[in-house]
Amino acid sequence: MKKVLALALSTLVAGGAFAQSFPSKPITIVVPFAAGGPTDLVARQLAEAMRGPLGGATIVVENAAGAGGTIGATKVARAQPDGYTLLVWHIGMASTASLYRRLQFKALEDFEYLGMINDVPMTLLGSPKLPANTYRDFENYIRANGGKLNLAHAGLGSTSHLCGLMWQSAVKLDKSMTTIAYRGTAPAMNDLIGGQVDVMCDQTTNTTSQIEAGRVKAFAVTTAKPLSGHKLLKDYPSLQEMGLKDFNLTIWHGMYAPKGTPAEVTKKLNDALQVALKDPDFIQKQAALGAMVVTDNRVSPAGHKAFVADQITRLKTVIEAAGQFAD
Ligand code: ASP
């Protein structure tokens, strides 16, 4: 008995010492999509903003892409719960619960929630080769040619897939577009610019600079109202304004650690995240790309988890209504 007690005590002391010295080696943020895309961009900007609050720690971003983000998420769920392997993922944390029949992780059971990062609108885009220039022309063109066109996305569970299929379902196309899955919307964007694919819906964090440079055509934003505060995106109508009643899709990103990461470590990570979310440079970089850094109680682990639990329920209804998501 004495031995057991002594062992438990020494583990506690070692755990406390471990947490105190955290971080003492590089931290890896796993991004479950290709490098250069919108999730990757958020993670890299955040890594830069969290470095100072974590005592100048080295934070590296690793891209573990595939299967709509679920490969990277599985990797983090199974990683050593020591705070050195983290996940930055988006709404897929909630949508995949309804989209996949079998997942290797449970969203609400296999992670420590560290806090939400941002809310991000999406934009409906076409390749520069599409003959349409306004949303109305775009919708009519897709209606007439849907069966011959391709929709690019980042896999089942990606925002581009969710948004693209929600839009097709909302406009009730007779013939839906052929969907083409990529490992992230960075490579998908390259093919959209090159005209190898025709349509994509993606986060403003990926699309704003391409729209500004005239490399793609933008037709609408997915928020309920137009983005009147943004110097470029304010010029595009919302899908609701264009007659798609109730269409309202804003996605979000959050940060996670494997279940079992010591509470002292998750506290340090959440503290650093909260400092980063108030960093004017981070806020400004995000705003320039149409993203809003979270300021409400979702920045706390409990608020974050409650929000994701609610999103799982809401998205189930949306996904069932869109009805075309078989894996
Ligand atoms: N925007 C992508 C998606 O559709 C993912 C990415 O490449 O960040 O989910």
Explain what the structure shows.
- α2 (38-51) links the parallel β1 (27-31) and β2 (59-63).
- The model is unreliable at 6-10 (pLDDT under 50).
- It is globular, with a radius of gyration of 21 Å.
- By secondary structure, it is an alpha/beta fold.
- The chain has helices at residues 2-21, 38-51, 70-77, 92-99, 135-145, 159-171, 185-194, 204-212, 263-276, 280-288, 301-322, and strands at residues 27-31, 59-63, 85-90, 111-126, 150-153, 178-181, 199-203, 217-221, 250-258, 292-293.
- The strands form 2 sheets. Strands 1, 2, 3, 4, 7, 8, 9 and 10 form an 8-stranded mixed sheet that branches.
- The longest helix is centred in the last third of the chain and has 22 residues, at 301-322.
- It contains 11 helices and 10 strands.
- The chain binds aspartic acid.
Index terms:
single chain; 10 strands; 42% helix
Assembly level: single chain
End-to-end Cα distance, whole Å, is 52 Å
Strand content: 15-25%
**Low-confidence spans:** 6-10
Order of helices and strands: HEHEHEHEHEHEHEHEEHHEH
Which ligands accompany this protein? Answer: aspartic acid
**Could you give a short account of the major beta sheet?**
8 strands, mixed
Give the gist of this structure.
The protein is α/β, with parallel strands linked by helices.
SSE arrangement:
Blueprint: H1 2-21, E1 27-31, H2 38-51, E2 59-63, H3 70-77, E3 85-90, H4 92-99, E4 111-126, H5 135-145, E5 150-153, H6 159-171, E6 178-181, H7 185-194, E7 199-203, H8 204-212, E8 217-221, E9 250-258, H9 263-276, H10 280-288, E10 292-293, H11 301-322
Parallel strand pairs: 1-2, 1-3, 5-6
Antiparallel strand pairs: 3-9, 4-7, 4-8, 4-9, 4-10
The protein binds aspartic acid.
Residues 33-34, 37-40, 153-154, 158-160, 184-186, 202-203, 206 line the site of aspartic acid.
